[in-house]
Amino acid sequence: MTQTLHIIGGGMAGSEAAWQAARAGLRVVIHEMRPQVGTFAHRTGDFAEMVCSNSFRSDDDEQNAVGLLHWEMREAGGLLMEMADRHRLPAGGALAVDRDAFSAGVTERLRKHPLIETQPGEISELPQDGHWIIATGPLTSGSLADAIRAETGTQALAFFDAIAPIVYSETIDMDVAWEQSRYDKGETEAEQRAYINCPMDRDQYEAFIDALLAADKTEFHEGETAGYFDGCLPIEVMAERGRETLRHGPMKPRGLTNAHDPDTKPYAVVQLRRDNALGTLYNIVGFQTKMRYGAQAEVFRMIPGLQDAKFARLGGIHRNTFLNSPTLLDDQMRLKSRPNVRFAGQITGVEGYVESAAMGLLAGRLAVAEMTGRPLPMVPSTTATGALVTHITGGAEAKTFQPMNVNFGLFPPVEGLKGGRKGREARYKAYTDRAKADWRAWLGATALDAA
To answer: So where does FAD get bound (predicted)?
Structure first.
């Protein structure tokens, strides 16, 4: 096959799109600007580098929409799920990975594939011809973003993402903290002890909130008026919404018993999750922040158990651009004004590692179908992948379009099932059963693997 698929961006979506296309026999060129052109958040030039977190969230494919998305990607031979499973870390019911080993594994597989070529350097203009997928993610370069704005005639929409800090585990005081997953969730002892918990009494919590509110913070530059994505709010922003917000969010004490003082219920709990296979690094769960570096160390050392903490990485904040996809993209994820260009990943208005990878998987398969002249039926909207792509390419209201995680609210209802909390377990199981059957049927009708 002489045609070549060009992919701009080697993140989650670009890596998965490249893998799917190469499996089908297409020649692929990945254009990745790192490490020649760096970003605020990335540290390496590896593919699929995890920036904000090391978690793919819930792995429950019967009761959780993102867990279902995991299942669909595994069924489709997804490279990222294969690498996530290979480099998995204990995380209760979640799928967390050793982020460096995961990225290195993805990079090795892609670089060794005989049909995949890597061309380093920045692409700053929209391609005029050929077959392209733009999967540049939340940190699309300024020049390419300008080219997209010029082509679409609209201002790029944007919001802000924040990054949580990482602590060296040897500096956590385990005479104060203890290991336990919430509600002891997990089938093995390692899973049931996957998190480190730091307890606070009421006075400690109130002092911590006061310090958060008073801390020196990074301010937006002039003209940066975008809001935050609600799933990645800085803890200071949550605290500004009410003093109890954190205690009912990432610091909720429910499902946890202090191993050092089991008769005293903590008023609040800060959790840390393992960040690498060695167990030498832990990230503070839900503690995205825009505090300046000096303030972060001072405030976070107020947490019992972290009074002597040393940080492998402090938190930060970065701008995240995305398209108004319902207006600009067709149902094949192509730019309407330039159909030789597809978009995939977070730039399309999905949010999260898994969602981004899933849109890369689909974009890669759509490109293969178009380039080989094999029509591809629409992915059913009853599946997690189909629900996402339907949402971003027409299901959402263009005027109010915002980044979206996968959730069961995007799925067509199952007839005959009652709504409300009491019927939720049966309803979610019906969603996932239907999705699995429809996804398998779609994959069977769209087998794209090379002979």
So the answer is: 9-14
Q: Is 200 annotated as a binding residue?
A: no
CA distances, 184 to each of 66, 187, 205 (Å): 21, 9, 24
Q: Could you give all domains of the chain from N- to C-terminal order, each with its CATH number?
A: 4-156+323-445 (3.50.50.60), 163-319 (2.40.30.260)
Confirm or deny that 94 is annotated as ligand binding.
no
Q: b/e per residue, 11-23, with b = 16+ CB within 10 A?
A: bbbbbbbbbbbbb
What's the predicted TM-score (pTM) here? 0.75
Task: Tell how far CA 124 is from the center of its chain.
Answer: 25
- C-alpha 382/C-alpha 440 separation (Å) is 12
| Cα 64 → chain centroid | 15
SS3 of residue 88 by DSSP: strand
Sign of CA dihedral 120, 123, 128, 133: positive
pLDDT value of residue 221 = 46
Tokens 């009421």: give the residue.
Answer: 202
414, two tokens: 């199952």
- Over 70: is that where the pLDDT of 225 sits? no
Q: Please state, as a whole number, how many other Cβ atoms lie within 10 Å of the Cβ of residue 310.
A: 12
- Residue 450 labelled as part of a binding site: no
Tell me if 13 is assigned to a ligand binding site: yes
pLDDT at 141: 78
Q: What is the DSSP letter of 134?
A: E
- Is there a binding annotation on residue 12? yes
Beta-carbon contacts of 93 under 8 Å, excluding residues fewer than 6 positions away, are: 58, 59, 60, 181, 185, 186, 191
Q: What is the predicted pLDDT for the residue at 222?
A: 40
Q: Name every residue whose Cβ is closer than 8 Å to that of residue 222 and which is 6 or more positions away in sequence.
A: none
- Residue pair 285/194 in contact (Cβ under 8 Å)? The answer is no
